[in-house]
Specification:
By secondary structure, the chain is mainly α. The chain is built from 4 helices and no strands.
């Protein structure tokens, strides 16, 4: 079913948490294509470019605010867009790690 954990780990997880575990496995399956795309060369380059552009825009906006007291609206909009994309990427990666960790180490108390 998944590469992130063994069939035995998956089966034990479902035994411990029951049918509600199917929703976690479904979430992992939904996140997997995104995670895989971030691990290939193109995905890594896109993420790297986004991070670099975010830092450059943040620096430009800060410099403009200090020197001119204002910043270009298009720069602010682009920064907001990149900020949203990077936060989404972070959230997806964190959720993927969290959910695969739950399957590997199920805790029936949660």
């Amino acid at each position: 079913m998944t590469k992130e954990f063994t069939d035995e780990e998956r089966d034990m997880y479902l035994k411990v948490v029951g049918r509600r575990g199917l929703s976690v496995l479904s979430l992992i399956d939904n996140l997997r294509p995104y995670i895989e795309s971030m691990n290939d060369d193109l995905g890594k380059q896109i993420l790297s470019d986004d991070i670099k552009m975010h830092a450059e825009l943040l620096n430009k906006i800060y410099t403009d605010l200090i020197s001119k007291g204002t910043a270009e609206q298009r720069d602010v909009i682009m920064l907001q867009l990149l900020d949203g994309r990077l936060k989404t990427a972070y959230d997806r990666l964190e959720n993927y790690k969290k959910f695969t960790g739950l399957v590997r180490n199920p805790d029936p108390g949660k």
